[in-house]
Amino acid sequence: MNAPYPAAGEAARPAHAPDDHPRLPPARTGVLLANLGTPDATNYWSMRRYLNEFLSDRRVIDYPAWKWQPILQGIILTKRPFTSGANYRKIWDTERNESPLLTITRAQTEGLRERLVARFGDRVRVEFCMRYGNPATADVLRRMLAEGCRRVLFFPLYPQYAGATTATACDQLFRALMREPWQPPVRVVEAYGDDPAFIAALAASVRRGWAEAAEAFGAEPERLVVSYHGMPERYLTQGGDPYHCQCRKTSRLLREALGWPEGRMVTTFQSRFGREEWLKPYTAEEVARLAREEGVRRIAVVAPAFAADCVETLEEIRGEVAESFEEAGGHGFHYIPCLNDDPAHLDALEGIILRNLGGWL
């Protein structure tokens, strides 16, 4: 159940309005969190709908439609829903009948709502949406406007900016706004992968995970692998997408916060799709190289590009990446969870929100 709002003020006619003017809800400020998305279920047709929406996004796959859509509709969406559905079933919450990403994003929203309502009462609305799947951006925005939100702070939950994440979430919001007769002023929270409170929360989680791994292994890990979601290399070299640079900066700030030497951490990129070159080194290949060429036997892995654990962390890292390391000779693999709804993470997100609400509340 969502954290409750205080008793709402009654709808009323604006001051000086004629008696026949419609009653309006009290003016409020909305905070709309956005994450990537999730299928509604793991069956073939649910996965196909989700993957079709995701892989048809030109921000994600930028090939011309005449070239890409026949491949997508005729080949990929015939087979991939089966394999993706199998991966989701490994992590699916069968009691709630939803993915961990949805569960965690809802918990983050409720935690932030409780904090902001404690500060501002009924003057604020805090909700979340998904770029792909449900709850859809347009549906949530429409509900917020109906509840009186006359200003909206849009917060894409991506610590590092990328066209395929932050930009497409904004695209969807702006498309939804195009259909609204009354458009509120909108602010968008910029990437926050260098925010001091975020880095502090990330460093604290690594220290905890490092200690847990040391206890489980009987010795400290030899490397921390900092794995980010990948993207085609040409998005950086030809398009100037800042994602790669921002990932590297997050890694550097994390290492400095931990007080570690450079050799203890390695930055990698995961989730490659297709045949072209993506940002390197690839996570699965790099952990195998560490074991095979450098004799590393114990590693910990953290994924700072994800605000919430999802199929890319819970299945890909704990499955494919772990297997790659172990098959190459490693025997100690420890995954450090995303920050999720950890209080320190919510503290950082709340601070970012409050700064961006400056002058509004």
State the end-to-end distance. 26 Å
Placed side by side, the strands forming the largest sheet appear as 2-1-3-4
CATH class of the largest domain: Alpha Beta
- Structural class based on helices, strands and sheet pairing: alpha/beta
Q: What does the radius of gyration come to? A: 22 Å
What does the overall shape look like? Answer: globular
Stretches with pLDDT under 50, minimum 5 residues: none
- Share of β-strand residues: 15-25%
The succession of helices and strands, N to C, reads EHHHEHEHEHEHHEHEHEH
Mean pLDDT: 94
Enter the CATH topology name of the largest domain: Rossmann fold
> What is the second-level CATH architecture of the largest domain?
3-Layer(aba) Sandwich
Task: Give structural attributes.
361 residues, alpha/beta, Rossmann fold, 2 domains, four-stranded parallel β-sheet, globular
In short:
With 361 residues, the chain is an alpha/beta fold. It has helices at residues 44-55, 65-91, 100-120, 137-146, 163-178, 196-217, 233-237, 243-258, 283-294, 311-327, 343-356, and strands spanning 28-38, 124-133, 149-156, 186-188, 223-229, 265-270, 298-302, 332-336.
Please render the helix and strand layout as text.
Layout: E1 28-38, H1 44-55, H2 65-91, H3 100-120, E2 124-133, H4 137-146, E3 149-156, H5 163-178, E4 186-188, H6 196-217, E5 223-229, H7 233-237, H8 243-258, E6 265-270, H9 283-294, E7 298-302, H10 311-327, E8 332-336, H11 343-356
Parallel strand pairs: 1-2, 1-3, 3-4, 5-6, 5-7, 7-8
